Amino acid sequence: MKKILDLITAEMKAAFANCGYDEAYAKVTLSNRPDLCEYQCNGAMAAAKAYKKKPFDIASEVVEKLAASHVFAAVDAVMPGFINLKLNSDYLADYMNGMADEEQCGCERTENPMTIVVDYGGANVAKPLHVGHLRSAIIGESIKRLGRFLGHHVIGDVHLGDWGLQMGLIIEELKDRKPELPYFDESYEGEYPKEAPFTIGELEEIYPAASAKAKSDEEFSTRAHNATLKLQNGFKPYRAIWQHIIEVSVSDLKKNYGNLNVSFDLWKGESDAEPYIAGLIKELEDKGLAYESQGALVVDIGEEGDNKELPPCIVRKSDGAALYSTSDLGTIIEREKDIKPDWYIYITDKRQELHFVQVFRVAKKAGFVSQDKKMSHLCFGTMNGKDGKPFKTRDGGVMRLETLISDISQAAYEKIMENRTVSEKEAEETSKIVGMAALKYGDLSNQASKDYVFDMDRFVSFEGNTGPYILYTIVRIKSILAKYQGVEDKYQGEEQILAAATDAEKDLMLQLSRYNEIMETGFTELAPHKICQYIYELANAFNRFYHDTKIISEEDKKRQASWIRLIRLTKDVLNACIGVLGIEAPERM
Ligand code: ARG
Questions:
Q1: What positions does the domain Arginyl tRNA synthetase N-terminal occupy (predicted)?
Q2: Which domains does the chain have, with CATH numbers?
Q3: Who contacts 1 (Cβ-Cβ below 8 Å, separation ≥6)?
Q4: Which of 75, 295, 524, 533 has the most CB atoms in a 10 Å sphere around its CB?
């Protein structure tokens, strides 16, 4: 369906053109004075300068042309030259009926689908998931779903950190603990065991122990570095251990991401870039882009218009090792070969901002991707505790994802039990859904780049701009619809949404009509928080309408049927919106 704003703008453009003014001035926006009007156009002010006339005169001319438009109920020129608009209620009701008839409530799939790689999650094999990975997973999942909803071909890649020093650390620690394993026996010539020589529990303990040891024990740290190099150079026994580490860790990660309702199409990682590294370094050298600096190989990335000097991108360290940037460049080459994305979207915390500027610029300079390739880094801020410091457990450790999820589900459970509308058993089930919504919505409703405070009490509250409030609204609509099912003398004609009878009803319709535009904006701007803001406003509009409308006892059956259709549409729109955020609603709560 056409966006309501575009339809309104088209009317305004025609009116400007009819008066002999450039239609470029006919820009319409949502009103910032909802008490006065619903939409507004301030174009007469800018036009006044160009045409050397009074803004009010231009506004008045345009308003006259709009008088006969079926789109508006009221069009007013107000001093000094604003044009205030109110939509015609019949027109709006028609638009609602259109939405109710269309697939995806009128939010169309694009005619020009892009292939998009969303690189998110970013877990590091064998290292614990931290809250940064949680944010990346939640935000990335929503971007992926939103892109798909709009008809794009979106591929989610977890891009594991599976190639770094943690591998050498684990290998050396394992050697110290279990020297009898065949991987450490140089004379061993048989096959290596299929079973991993450790469980996930052990692995989780081995890595932190090794990492701590490396800090105080220089000899151990050197050994770990060497083991990492050996692994990267293809040393067979270490490759075998590495394979085990990946298997054990990935199956645990899948479980963790699964609990978050986050899933990836690709489980690739930094190690997959390895085959491309040597070639890409050579290409950078051959093209004269890479040069030696203090023993390292670097590429300058400065561009005209930079307001500060950006450090060059290091592609090889002085000891010959590749780096994070090199592996991201290798991954780009691989993706160009296998996927040919039109758009790359990376989702990490904002401390990696410079890294991605470097990687994108080198990739373009070297021609690994075309000059105009869309490459975005959606960076997010820190999730802080109430003390304003990065979120930790009570004893200061890294918060385990499972703990976080179970804590928030527990808090949700208590809230649900306060209401006492469902049985204890149902509350328990529902609390998982509600807890997840609280967590995700609490995150997504903030502009990603900003830090935010993880406030469990606020997140699980049924009031305010929270996940549970949105779910509660959906559940409320479901319950009215179920009651209507039981109403005997239903209207038997064709259900149609009628022109709004009250301001609250019209306001609900106005909110609904913004839906397809919001979905698109949320995606093109990579801004799920805008969808959250919209959902909140829509839920508020619904609740105000519901507050002063007695739907089930309404005697005018035609009117009642209209309301039923309207609230069903509201539910469908809310469901679609939470769906793209990776949130689901329970039946009751
Ligand atoms: N593993 C990285 C980390 O924990 C995130 C990876 C992000 N993706 C990428 N292509 N660099 O910070």
A1: 2-87
A2: 4-87 (3.30.1360.70), 117-160+267-384 (3.40.50.620), 165-259 (no CATH), 401-580 (1.10.730.10)
A3: 95, 98, 99, 102, 106, 107, 108, 516
A4: 75
